[in-house]
Specification:
alpha+beta, 1 helix, about 30% helix, about 60 residues, 4 strands
Length: about 60
């Protein structure tokens, strides 16, 4: 099992997921994902879903 992962969203580096015990801590690599910085996720997939939701919310807000 890896201790860390680079999370990419739409071909952009979003953050690093660093293993902390039984969870992954999100380390933001881009300002768009700053609100996830330091949050813990139980899996890489959970972190990716959170990052994608953030992107969708921002796109909807920009379109409004």
């Amino acid at each position: 099992m890896a201790n860390g992962y680079l999370l990419e969203i739409d071909h952009h580096d979003a953050g690093l997921l660093v293993r902390e015990g039984g969870a992954y801590a999100f380390v933001s690599l881009a300002g768009a994902f700053q609100s996830l910085d330091g949050k813990l996720f139980s899996s890489v997939a959970d972190a990716e879903r959170a990052a994608r939701r953030l992107v969708r919310r921002r796109a909807l807000a920009a379109a409004a």
